[in-house]
Specification:
The protein has 7 helices and 5 strands; from the N terminus they run ααβααββααββα. By secondary structure, it is mostly helical. The protein folds into 2 domains: 76 residues, Orthogonal Bundle (Arc Repressor Mutant, subunit A); 94 residues. The strands form 2 sheets. The protein has a 3-stranded antiparallel sheet with strand order 1-3-2. A two-stranded antiparallel sheet has the order 4-5. A hairpin with a 6-residue loop joins strand 2 and strand 3. Helix 6 runs antiparallel to helix 7. The longest helix is centred in the middle third of the chain and has 34 residues.
Length: 183
């Protein structure tokens, strides 16, 4: 379970059971003062005081639009992390997933670049010495040229793309599983 760091203001804001109810009410929603008041059965003045303390602690965001008299409240990232600490894990999982996609595509492009570069030259662009066993000569269209890349990069790229596929499925499954509030 990921850890959530609380500071002094957050402890003060969370000391009241009423404020915890307000946080649970706002979970995944953007609500006005009247909506929160009817959901929690609190007076609007009392509710406004509690929302101010939650806003000062950084647990709730206020959405005000110029020229409009209504103010909407929703959970901030801190507030959502407090109720659902597993969401941070999902963000990290998606980041790692797209990093593996990037490395997989870069590896394939690096490998293919050798074919494209060697096609533009003469009949034999590069002839490997016996020490360079990682290079491969390829005959294509009657011309012999070097792939210019170590095949291990291709295998690593394919491994990265396979890992990307597995991580993407796991990330989406985790995201959908945690999307609905369980409080």
């Amino acid at each position: 379970m990921p850890k959530v760091t609380l500071d002094k203001n957050m402890f003060k804001a969370l000391a009241s059971e009423t404020r915890l109810d307000i946080l649970r009410t706002l979970d995944g929603k953007k609500m006005g003062l009247k909506d929160i008041s009817s959901a929690t059965n609190l007076n609007k003045a009392t509710l406004h005081e509690h929302l101010t303390k939650l806003h000062e602690a950084g647990l709730v965001k206020r959405k005000e639009r110029e020229g409009h008299k209504w103010v909407y409240y929703k959970l901030s990232w801190k507030g959502a992390s407090l109720l659902h600490p597993e969401n941070t894990r999902i963000v990290v999982m998606f980041t790692v997933t797209f990093a593996t996609l990037f490395f997989g595509i870069a590896g394939i492009l690096n490998y293919v670049r050798g074919f494209i570069a060697s096609e533009r030259g003469s009949d034999i662009i590069y002839a490997p010495t016996p020490d360079e066993v990682n290079e491969t000569l390829v005959t294509f269209g009657g011309k012999t040229f070097s792939a210019g890349q170590n095949p291990i990069f291709l295998y690593v790229a394919i491994g990265c793309l396979t890992l990307f596929s597995v991580l993407m499925v796991a990330s989406i499954w985790r995201y959908r599983k945690n999307k609905t509030p369980r409080l």
